[in-house]
C-alpha cells in the first residue's frame, strides 16, 4: 500500500519564498522527499556552479530530505527536442544533459523530460523522428550518469503528437534505453480526456516510474480534494499494482502562492484520511 513516505513535496508554488524557506517548510511538515522544480528564482541552472549545486544538496540533506526528481522548466522556456530547427533541438538536448549532470550532484536519480511544443503546421512523422533522435542523445548522458528519465505527455492543447500514454510507451520502445520511463499526471490526463490512470498502468507496466498526483477541474493542478477529479480512485488503482514510486505534488494554482505551506499541509491531511 502507498505510504506517506512516498509523497514528494515540490517548490512550484513556493516561488514567492526563498529556497531555504521551502526546505524548512517541508521539513517542518514532516516530508522526507522533494521534487525540485529547476527554475528561477530557486534553481535556474545558468546561475549555479557545480559548487553551488553541491551546497544546495548539503542544505537538502541537513534537513533530512532527499531530492527524488529534478524537473527542469520546459514549458514556457525555449526548450523543445522536437523543434524543426536542428540548432534549437541541439540546444534543447544540451539543456537536458546539463540537468542530468546537476541531478547527479544532487544525488537524485530522476530528471523529468518532455517533447516540447508541437507546431500544428509541421509534419507529425518528422516531428516524432526529431523527438526520438533527441531523446536518444539525452539517454546517452542519462545512462552514463545513472539517471532515469520519466517522460510526461503534455495536454492536447500543447502537442497533438505526444499527448497519450500510448505515445509514451511507443517512444520508450523506439528509443530502446532502459533509462527512459513514463510519468502519469492526473490533471494532464483528465484535461486531455483520452486516457485514465488505468490506461497508464496497463500500457506502461513497470515503466510507470513517477506520478504527479494533483486534482483539477480539470486543469489547475490543485491540492487533492479541492477539484473534481476521482483522486480516491486513482489511489486505489495505484495500490492495486503495489506502486512503489513517488507521488509528486505539482501544485500550480496561484491561490497557493501566498501561503504555500497551507497547501502542502492540506495535501497531507487528504492523504492521512485516504491512506489506510
UniProtKB/TrEMBL annotation:
Recorded superkingdom: Bacteria
Protein name per its UniProtKB record: Protein FrlC
Species this protein is from: Paenibacillus jamilae
Organism lineage: Bacteria, Bacillati, Bacillota, Bacilli, Bacillales
